[in-house]
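Dock FE2/S2 (inorganic) cluster; give full complex structure.
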Amino acid sequence: MSEKQLIVLTVNDAEYELLVEPRWTLLDVLRHEVGLTGTHVGCEHGVCGACTILVDGEPVRACLMYAVQAEGYEIRTVEALGTPEQPNDLQQAFSEHHGLQCGFCTPGFLMLAEGFLAQEPAPTREGIREAMSANLCRCTGYQTIVDAIEETAARRRGEASGPVAEPLDPGKETVG
Ligand code: FES
Ligand code: FES
């Protein structure tokens, strides 16, 4: 067993002092040390995207990053979006369009989509499909996921009716 190191992680606007082994992934530390289990564990080798989070706004696979590498970055997990009682607009659109079935892949898709929409506020359907092809879903067939993201983008641009969430800013209060 390696010697543990003291690190400070900034997750969803909160700071956590953590004693971690250098070999522990950010995914395991988020789940087991920070207690945020919304980020799911799938393949653990960078293929499925179930563990996708935002690091300084960029979608990152948390299973491919060591926790000790994440110091100094602004980390956002699915818990930053909304709650079952108060989903954000993207979560609401996933629900409206049936963009999930078993839900295992959903946290990863939500964070991938949030990072994508922050960079591409007016994406083409093809662009959404290409971006979402980074993650795997075994249930939905992807059409409904693409529909949900397309509608969220349109709502955020004011081109469709429905709820619109504040963008995920580093300084924004975490919901829930
Ligand atoms: S669990 Fe990280 S990509 Fe599959
Ligand atoms: S909803 Fe089941 S894997 Fe995507």
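Observed: Residues 171-176 have pLDDT under 50 and may be disordered.
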